[in-house]
Write a structure and sequence with these properties.
By secondary structure, this protein is of the alpha/beta class. The protein contains 17 helices and 12 strands. Helix 5 runs parallel beside helix 12. The longest helix has about 35 residues. It catalyses: N(6)-[(R)-lipoyl]-L-lysyl-[glycine-cleavage complex H protein] + glycine + H(+) = N(6)-[(R)-S(8)-aminomethyldihydrolipoyl]-L-lysyl-[glycine-cleavage complex H protein] + CO2.
Length: about 525
């Protein structure tokens, strides 16, 4: 990391090495507004105003306003330049694994901004929001139809919140049956970290299940871990290695026979939507990330959305509020009945996310959703076929689902790490793939192309990845150890930045003291 005397990262030196085939169009460093402007001038002339101390209650400013003097074009151009430095799905391929950074159709955005959806308030009388409730009812219907489940809770705000909801429903079900002594949750070692965290948060003890040589969970290992104290298993399918759990039906049967429930992490539902119904596989609860599967943005300008579908066994334990129907009139059940886990959040959820997801469903139809899932799987397998002669696949001999997982074996002896390789991707104009996850694979490189990307985009990405791999194997350590060299800033000390963040601007003189 190159630092100046004040401990600030310096801009990179000019780079003369020819660019590879990737779209290397990174912008130079952008100074802060406080560094662009000064305190002696103003972009706008305003007359002095006489204000008495009495009017401000003794709170009149005693020191000059610490703002830089800028013209409106200067301020506007600054923020436009910053926006161009922000990598997004609208500017290039986003190959993060296990995150499904797919295209967000603008039609979804237009629908979500309709006044009848965007301008309503959660405390309005239900008689004035019948259209919104109908949209929520339709979304609930299609989520249950796609998963073959009996109930759905729309209120969870994200995937981890959905996990909490599903596991709370399982806990409520056990307590209703007089099985509150069940205090163990089985979690595969390849699971998302939120799975064991959620179980522990609810007071459960977590028992890890090792992956087999194929990267999946073996039913025999699950059976060996089951006991009268096990409350549930939390299994991701497709799993975080990008593989379909081929023994999932047998695992579900064993879990149910032991009196436990099957929680499925639905983060990777994008690979099977419209093709496989998780309810047919034996799951009792599953959260669905609308921002991954149904194209709503990650965040969407507010809370996310992680609805949870529930089996017939868990449906009585769903949280409130939920949409009810009495003839042609729709309402909200606001008070928990017997067996319900209660209220998970103050209001129902994020209306904008519901509308975006429903728009995506209705515009695709059942056949279109299935085609999107199949295309996501096809794209991942295409990348695997184009790269597996140079990269190393830890669990080979089987097709992948929505993402392809490589490890760092191909870098052995080169002096180049997974992190070095990922940083070099930035120089070629690509956001790095997911690194070092899942933890079951040494030096993991997890790539998910999604169904959004065309063959031409995938081929351009492949050529860049192949060129980087060949250069790494050739021993060109300098290219990787110092990367990125064409980014606005050189490689940063990320550990120091995380432990000693500077959250407030300081002039150079103050920072040096």
């Amino acid at each position: 990391m190159s630092m100046n005397a004040q401990g600030r990262p310096t801009a990179p030196a000019p780079e003369t090495r020819p660019a590879a085939s990737g779209p290397a169009a990174l912008l130079p460093a952008e100074p802060l507004l406080f560094e662009i402007g000064d305190h002696d001038h103003s972009g706008v002339d305003l007359p002095d105003v006489e204000i008495s101390d009495d009017r401000l209650g003794g709170l009149r400013r005693k020191a000059p306003l610490d703002l830089p003097g800028l013209t409106e074009p200067e301020a506007m151009r600054h923020y436009v330049r910053l926006s161009r430095r922000n990598y997004s799905i609208d500017s290039g391929m986003y190959p993060l694994g296990s995150c499904t950074m797919k295209h967000n159709p603008r039609l979804n955005e237009k629908m979500a901004r309709l006044p009848g959806f965007a301008d309503i308030h959660p405390l309005q009388p239900v008689s004035t929001v019948q259209g919104a409730l109908m949209a929520m009812e339709q979304l609930s219907h299609w989520l249950m139809e796609l998963t073959n489940t009996a109930a759905v809770a729309l209120s969870p705000k994200a995937g981890a919140h959905g996990e909490l909801c599903g596991m709370m429903a399982i806990k409520a079900a056990h307590e209703a049956r007089g099985q509150g002594h069940r205090r163990i949750v089985l979690v595969p070692e390849s699971a998302h970290g939120t799975n064991p965290a959620t179980a522990a948060f609810l007071g459960y003890a977590v028992r890890s299940i090792d992956a087999n040589e194929n990267g999946t969970v073996d039913v025999a290992a699950v059976k060996a871990a089951l006991s009268d104290d096990v409350a549930a298993i939390m299994l991701t399918n497709p799993n975080t290695c990008g593989l379909f759990e081929s023994q999932i039906i047998e695992i579900a049967a064993a879990v149910h026979e032991a009196g436990a429930y099957f929680y499925c992490d639905g983060a990777n539902f994008n690979a099977i939507m419209g093709v496989v119904r998780p309810g047919d596989l034996g799951i009792d609860a599953m959260h669905i990330n609308l921002h991954k599967t149904f194209s709503t943005p990650h965040g969407g300008g507010g809370p996310g959305s992680g609805p949870v579908v529930l089996s017939e066994a868990l449906a009585p334990h769903a949280p409130v509020p939920f949409v009810t129907r009495d003839g042609d009139s729709l309402g909200l059940a606001e008070h928990a009945g017997e067996g319900s886990l209660g209220r998970l959040t103050a209001f129902h959820g994020q209306m904008g996310m519901y509308i975006r997801a429903l728009t995506y469903m209705l515009s695709h139809g059942a056949d279109g959703l299935a085609q999107a899932a199949r295309d996501a799987v096809l794209n991942a397998n295409y990348l695997k076929a184009r790269l597996d002669d140079l990269f190393t696949v830890p669990f080979d001999g089987q097709p992948v689902m929505h993402e392809v997982l490589f490890d760092d074996s191909f870098l052995k002896g080169s002096g180049i790490s997974t992190l070095d390789f990922a940083k070099a991707m930035i120089d070629e104009g690509y956001h790095p793939m997911t690194m070092y996850f899942p933890l079951v694979v040494q030096g993991a490189m997890l790539i998910e192309p999604t169904e959004s990307e065309s063959l031409q985009t995938l081929d351009a990405f492949v050529e860049t990845m192949r060129e980087l791999a060949e250069d790494a194997k050739a021993g060109n350590v300098g290219r990787f150890a110092q990367a990125p060299m064409r980014a606005p800033l050189r490689r940063l000390d990320e550990t120091r930045a995380a432990r000693q963040p500077r959250l407030k601007y300081q002039p150079l003189a103050a920072a040096a003291e």
